[in-house]
Amino acid sequence: MKKVVLLVAITGFIGAFSAAQAADAVAGKSKAKTCAGCHGQNGISNNDNWPNLAGQKKGYLVKQLKDFRSGVRKDGQMSYWAKSLKDVDIENIAEYFSKLK
Predict the structure, then answer these.
(1) What structural domains does the chain harbor?
(2) What is the pTM of this model?
């Protein structure tokens, strides 16, 4: 009986943890307002020097933001801005832009 209760408790914890880790596009949209200055209101840049973010794959966006944050990838503005992002912010921003057309 103790094993069943423990298994149910662990399963519930994992489910709750997974739900908490799910990216939130609404929160990402709010956080991504800073991006609009260079990457456009809807993730479409009007400048050839800055990439479009709308429709990019989520994993790609996560990797690039984490690389800017860690210093693996360098750009004056992006590196500075990315340092303020938490993992959850990065996931949410990537979720938001990946859902745009």
Answers:
(1) 24-99 (1.10.760.10)
(2) 0.77
